[in-house]
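Researcher: Please generate the 3D structure of the following complex. Treat every line as part of one assembly.
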Amino acid sequence: MNNVIPKKPRFDLACRSAYQTLHYLKIHSFPFNLLPILGKFNIMVATYGEVARRSGKSIQDIIISTGTEDGLTIYAHGTYIVLYNETISISGRIRWTLAHELGHIVLKHFTDFDATQLTRCGLTDSEYKVLDREANTFASEFLCSPALINILPISNTSAISTILGISYEAAMYAKKKLQDYPLLHTRHSSFFRKQFYNFLNVKYCMNCHHRFILKDAKFCPICGSEKVQWGNFKQPTFIFFRNKETKEVPVMHYKNYPTTETGRIKDQCIRCENEDLKEDFKFCPICGLSTTNKCVGVPNDWSDEDIPPQAPCELGQTLPPNARYCPYCGGYSDYYIHQALPSWEDEVKQIQEEDTEYNSLSADEQIPF
Ligand SMILES: [Zn+2]
Ligand SMILES: [Zn+2]
Ligand SMILES: [Zn+2]
Ligand SMILES: [Zn+2]
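Model: Done. Output below.
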């Protein structure tokens, strides 16, 4: 190999490689742990502390001899070793260093370019500016792409840094890149929409504590409340919702029923439990319930002074089987008005009774030693 290091950073290649890596590793949510990822690429990892202990030196000595405070990659005999400074107190910065080094490796900086210095000492920031900018672009697109920032349901910089596990500066930088070159970045948003579908579309109802994944849901399908927000529990607002003892945000697990890919219930009718539901049946032959739950709007006999009648909506043609309300227009569901589902309040009571029963059972059955 006698390839010459390119004069200009190959931004497009770095960007594409970051997306391919996210796709290849089946990463579907943030923040993700970088160390197992390096392991998957057979990259060895050691901390400055380990190197210092083994060589009888101090971490400061390692920083001086490597020429970098954060980390570097050493390539020798076909093996990669990433060294990083674990004493950096900002964890987002360590993640950045590891992603940056992964970028050097994925972009084949050590094997495509014939620079003996590269292989002997690893890459240092000052010597290989072009390759370093490529590795930085890789890290930025891998951990906090402006194309992702563009479609996140929140825009607060400090919340973004918490949710993606990056430093405040990295979040600011990504936001600025999006502002400066909106077209360049937004054209890549479709990759993130698909790859991180559940992460982006998870919702949480503040009223009945239902957590669910539905794109464009404005109302809670269980209780009909409009108090629905992005269900990422790392958001700072959820601090106030956490249980004081368990530190967890309460989630109520409402009963749901298995469906086919098209959203039609399978196995058995949820109202009469008839198990003879052939694939082309639109209705249960025993009780007449539809095999797909859908929005019915607000029928005349369900409307009153406060709720005017309303036609079924376009989007609500297939709803989850346990939906009492249409998440798109707030109308009623077919299963709710045909009494295939109890009211959500009744189901909460039932869940709580079962919990109490379970707890008293386990208290009785104390281990006798
Ligand atoms: Zn570098
Ligand atoms: Zn709800
Ligand atoms: Zn039935
Ligand atoms: Zn609807």
